[in-house]
Amino acid sequence: MENFLYGVLTNTGKGFFTAEDRRAFFLRGYPADVWVIGNNERGACWVADKNGVFKTKSEAQALVDADVQAAQAAWDAQTDEEKAEPNNTRPTDITLP
Amino acid sequence: MAGYNEIRGLRVKYLSTNPSNPEEGEVWYNSTLGQLKANVLGAAVWTSGGSLNTKRSATVAGTVSAGLASFGYIYPPSSPEGGSNVTEEYNGTAWTTVNTANTPRYQVNSTGTQTAAVAFGGFAGAGSTPGGGPYTATNAFESYNGTTWTNLTGAPTAKAADPPLTGTQTALVQTGGITDTSGTPSNQTQEYNGSWSAGENYPASAQSVSAAGTLTAAVFCGGATNAPGSSKLDTAFEYDGTDFSATGSLPVAATSLGGRTGTQTASIFAGGSSPLNNTTLEYNGSVFAVNPASPSGGRPAIGQGKMSGTAATAALVAGAGSTPTMTTTEEFTGAVVEVKTLTTG
Is B228 in Cβ contact with A89 (below 8 Å)? Predict the structure, then answer.
């Protein structure tokens, strides 16, 4: 069995993930509303309860890549002066676990 | 093997209901339920909070139940692009937009409570180009009383890049930071206790250093010695209101670790630069240790200026920086004693 599930879910704010959720399964958010969820019954139910859409790992990675690449293109379009601003680093690629 | 009686010097209690005052390590038999139970220290956890109304890299002050998010940079497609003076209050559930501050700016830092906060520094723009720039570091210093922002006497030195500061509205210490848009980090320290005065120079010239505690009992950690933030530090120093002294180091060099979440002897730092994006660190007055609780992330770094709380057991982060700018909030709840069933039957 794979270790993780992949889904697209919109963070609705308070109660989106609770203390019980965090203790029951792994959860980590990424750009493009992609979430990596521990692959157990509670994790799968959480995705369904939140009206999430399951994705394969490659589909989820493609969504993250598209978001990061858009951000990288926006950064590349900045002037040299803007790029030199403190803490304004080029967005880095993200590899999902 | 030693029994409970030898370990605790007590016999297991025979009770009809669970004890009303939880004590860690306490063991009892619940005769009503027929279960052996214990009070154990549960795990700390990060949970989702209400989302900001305006997507930006705000600075956060206050507590989990009474938070304050202000300033920050608004990136397109949100508008108007540029440094912001938007202010929002948090009630533990939702953010509400309230009166704006006086000087729109970003990479600001704030401290204090929802009804007695101050915000210092950042980049303020002339508003002559899209996005409000060109920007320069500002010494702007404003106080918030729960209703309105008031301009106070500016600090002696303008600072930006989330200028590290900690303390209260009336007694704070600020050190490091960047003094212009392309400049090198500073080691200059300035204190405020109703008026500004100079403090001892920070042991490193650094920006995006994180801080917790008070003017006379603070801890500073991490940071970077260059403007891009790539030359990171793992060092930490305590400040007693007069001198800096070295203390335990971070597990790895990192910037933008949040802070302002407790005292010099009990505080947490979370997020920050890679590889600590999803890491929570605890500081106990001498050592930094990793807490198993992990923020869910979904942001480049929780980061300096976006985290606040009154104790190491309750903290708040909201918003995020440039890629992507976010509205999400996460709340940290430290470990608490809870009842665990050991046996049934």
Answer: yes
ipTM of this complex prediction, to 2 decimal places: 0.89
Same domain (yes/no): B34, B58: no
Distance (Å) from the alpha carbon of B2 to chain A's nearest alpha carbon: 31
Is there a contact between B328 and A18 if contact means CB atoms under 8 Å apart? no
Whether the Cβ atoms of residue B323 and residue A91 lie closer than 8 Å to each other:
yes
Q: Is residue A93 part of a domain?
A: no
The span from the first CA to the last CA of chain A, in angstroms, equals 15
- Is residue B338 in a domain? no
Alpha helices for chain B (secondary structure H): 4-8
Residue-level length of chain A: 97
- Please give, rounded to a whole number of angstroms, the shortest distance from the CA of A73 to a CA of chain B: 11
Per-residue pLDDT of chain B (345 residues; tens, 9 = 90+): 676 667 666 678 899 999 888 888 889 999 999 999 999 988 899 999 998 998 888 999 999 999 999 998 887 777 788 889 999 999 999 999 999 999 999 889 999 999 999 999 998 986 655 566 678 899 999 999 999 999 999 999 999 988 999 999 999 999 999 987 667 899 999 999 999 999 999 999 999 999 999 999 999 999 999 988 889 999 999 999 999 999 999 999 998 888 888 899 999 998 877 778 788 999 999 999 999 888 887 655 555 567 888 777 788 887 766 556 778 889 999 888 888 898 766
- Tally of domains in chain B: 2
Task: Say which amino acid occupies B280.
Answer: T
Domain that holds residue B26: 4-41
Question: Which residues in A lie closer than 8 A to residue B232 (C-beta atoms)?
Answer: none
CB-nearest partner of B50 from A14, A23, A28: A14
Please give the residue range of the domain that contains residue A77: 4-83
B185 vs B170: CA distance, rounded Å: 26
